[in-house]
Queue: 4 jobs
Job 1
Amino acid sequence: MKKLLIPIIIVVGISTIVVLSYGKQDSSTSNKPSTALDTTIAKPNTQENGPAGLYTEYSAEKLAQTPADGKNVIFFHASWCPSCRSADKDIKNNLSSIPENLTILKTDYDTQKNLRKKYGVTGQHTFVQVDSEGEMITKWSGGDLSTIISRIK
């Protein structure tokens, strides 16, 4: 019995170390808010990539500065949400495909409780199309850039 006790203790110890180190890595990356968009602006309009809209962090000021005849979509994103990360990556990889009159404003689902309440958003990966005054036009859940483009009114 003593011969089995030592290997069992070693296995339990190694397992504990692995679980604890994985937990530290996971929590250190998932709790940090994404700041990748703070300076992200769609590629400038050129002959090569054609007209391009904008993908940026949400703020009331940015929304107010959008053209009155433009299309605005607020993207309720959560860093822990796999489908949100996938949509974010798709939008970033296709910035030149954003129509010229479209502004996508990314906001944090977890911290923007008042904004969620204003638009009746109950789940992350929700898109809300609003006018330049912030009045809701339409709302949907899920999708990527092609979904946004097809759903805007």
Job 2
Amino acid sequence: MWMALIAWIYPAGHRADVPDSASYVRALGLPAPFAYADFAARSSIREERGVPPAEQMIHQLVEGQEVVIRTARTVYPLAERIPDQVTADLLTKMKQVHERTARMLRSLLS
């Protein structure tokens, strides 16, 4: 079921953005996270333990999407001020994807 849900939420075009994001981070002269531990150490989304009921999992996914949306909204003004249009565009695209995903997940709860 999870794979079907992921395919529904993240069409193939959005999953392809991950390598682009890593390339972008490297282009800024920073090391792109590689291992799960690297991502976990940098994440604002807390890791849950155990296996909660499906509805609670969906709530957690919505909360995670909202964290990403808030982060993008916080960083966007910095990109505009520099100005760094590439970063601003990336943040806009990321925010739109996560807003859409949060809406789709919420529809499963109603």
Job 3
Amino acid sequence: MFLTIADDYQIRGHPMMTRCALVFSCAVGGSLGLRLLSSMGRIMSQVRKGNALTTTLGRVFYPKGMSVAVDLGLALATFSAAFNGISCYLRRTEKRDAPWYAIPSSVVASFAAYWLWPSQRITIYALCNTLYDFYMMGVAKQMVPTIPHGPNLAFASICAVIFSVGGIKPHYIRKSYVSFINRILGNRVDRINWSAISHAGFDSARVYKENLPAILNPDYVSTRYMQTMWVWSLADYMYKIHKRPVV
């Protein structure tokens, strides 16, 4: 966890507010600092062309980017305050400390942070890692049945879930991870007929361009055909003609 509060800290008073302010400041400063470092080449290029430095910095730190940094800082500060506050309250109420206090504290803190920073990518990764950690913990404590190659199968199942999400809603997964999955699967991601998936109601076309031959209009094929055959039937043909580029 990000920060912890000692047992002698109280929920009321300045220590909690000081820590929340510190988390908020570090999050906002780190976000803006990374944005500045990533845009340093563009800033130098614009300055060499004769543009004013203040104008160039204004384009880098535009209002929407500042709002994102502030929302991130508020989310992390809220997470820290909720987690530490609930943990401290449970310790003082029960007059002892216990590892399970982290469960309700982290759940409430996660919901509070997600309300301020609704990131589907972080949610998917956190869910998959949590399920895998629970399985490995259960195996270590002999609480779940042990099967041959169980950890490998669990990891493969999690990768399958991420691959499915990457096919249906690819903007929920980082493009670098989609590219990694594409490589280990023998470029199968590039051979998916994204038009069929988009016409079925998903927004995969937000990331991948639709390449639909005129001979197969989605308005004249059945839903069962789209769900069973259409996604892969034109794989080889489309892959030979052109590889689907990522937008």
Job 4
Amino acid sequence: MTVLEHVTDLTATTVPHRAQRPKAELARGAERPFRTVDQEGCRSYPLIAADKVGR
């Protein structure tokens, strides 16, 4: 059994990362569509933490 401990929305911290990504050495050209989707609020990045409970 897993008990849900905490859910955190990381979307707001992802948008600044996407803004910097095209300037990175490893940029491959897919950054603009991802950034557009993030800015339009069409995607979210939740962090879900859970603990496994013994039997």
